[in-house]
Design brief:
With about 350 residues, this protein is mainly beta. It has 3 domains: about 120 residues, no CATH class; about 80 residues, no CATH class; about 80 residues. The strands form 6 sheets. The chain has an 8-stranded mixed β-sheet with strand order 15-17-16-13-12-11-14-18, with no helix packed on it. It holds the Pfam family WG_beta_rep.
Length: about 350
């Protein structure tokens, strides 16, 4: 249970991944579900022998769609860069996961289906986009560039309310943060628990140890989450109900059932906890849900659009994003939906 053991394990995992990730020419034909660039939603109707029906009046601001047969799950800008795949931030923010018939694919901001839903892909923090069995890794063009199989590569971190110390979990053994500090330059999210000494004969004991097998402990239920600097000191001493990863220098945090944002350097509140839901910032835009619906705010908390979309994904930049209206999901120019006058 030491740094050398953990480093060796990480090296083996990554070495296996790099060996498997060989370039392949496989890819998919592009399916377009909307116009590449228009000022109104697509009105393309499926081929039929019946008489044509009247198309609905276009909505101003739509670049793609809207369409009803897919649901946008999340922009790939919401995920941290994978450690192994050459998929840049600029490429990721142009892509989004979508679901269709219960499975997940990838679509871009032009309405091109990059990876069909039948591949049922998901995000791996090591490889990026991979299929259900993690036998294939895809690049931003939908090409297969290797095989996966890494799964979620995360180390649980706990803050003990008894000792006021931070611990890493390594194979059910809790090791002091000072002994096994993670190699990170950003604040980390720790689960707040109460750790109490016990015996292996205790019926409530679940196999956890403190430092070694001579010190069995019981790890209590989750009491919340805290942010800690890389040196192990608390960022702001606040316990939150939930915390989402850092983006554009912020963490999204939940207090009293509502979401806001704090500065990842200082821990200071940037946007008051007032939203029902909140997505990570991408640049100077974040999608949030208020009582009337979804909309977009700036890093200062100022509303940049109306707040009445039925759904929203993180903006690709300060002007374009996937949103859901009564007509379905589509890509819009956010400037066409200014904040409503109060």
């Amino acid at each position: 249970m030491n740094k050398k053991w953990i480093a060796a394990a990480l090296a083996v995992c990554l070495a296996v991944g790099f060996t498997a990730c060989k370039k392949s020419d496989e890819g998919y034909g592009v399916t377009v579900i909307g116009p590449e660039k228009t000022s109104a939603p697509s009105t393309v109707q499926p081929q039929t022998t019946a008489a044509p029906t009247a198309t609905p009046k276009p909505q101003a601001g739509f670049v793609v769609g809207p369409v009803k047969d897919i649901d946008i799950v999340a922009s790939l800008a919401d995920y941290s860069a994978p450690s192994q795949t050459q998929l840049s931030l600029e490429e990721r923010e142009q892509l989004a996961f979508f679901t269709q018939n219960g499975k997940t694919g990838v679509i871009d901001l032009k309405g091109n289906i990059v990876i069909p839903a039948e591949k049922d892909v998901h995000w791996c923090p090591v490889c990026g986009i991979t299929n259900e069995g993690e036998t294939e890794i895809y690049n931003a063009k939908g090409e297969v560039i290797g095989s996966g199989g890494h799964g979620q590569f995360e180390t649980p971190i706990y803050y003990d309310t008894n000792t006021k110390k931070l611990y890493l979990e390594n194979m059910e053994t809790l090791v002091s943060w000072n002994q096994e500090m993670l190699n990170t330059l950003e604040p980390v999210i720790a689960t707040v628990v109460t750790i109490t000494p016990t015996t292996q004969e205790d019926a409530n004991w679940k196999g956890s140890f403190l430092n070694d097998e001579s010190a069995p402990v019981i790890v209590g239920e989750t009491e919340g989450y805290m942010l800690f600097k890389p040196d192990g000191t608390a960022l702001n001493n606040q316990v939150y109900e939930e915390i989402q990863r850092a983006s554009t220098g912020t963490f999204a945090v939940k207090q009293n059932g509502l979401w806001g944002y704090v500065n990842q350097e200082t821990g200071e509140e940037m946007v008051k906890c007032q939203y029902l839901e909140a997505l990570p910032f991408n640049g100077d835009r974040a999608a949030v849900k208020a009582e009337n619906g979804w909309g977009y705010i700036s890093l200062t908390g100022r509303q940049k659009t109306s707040m009445d979309f039925l759904g929203a994904a993180s903006a690709a930049d300060e002007s374009t994003a996937w949103v859901r209206t009564a007509e379905g999901w589509g890509v819009v120019n956010l400037s066409d939906y200014p904040p409503q006058a109060s």
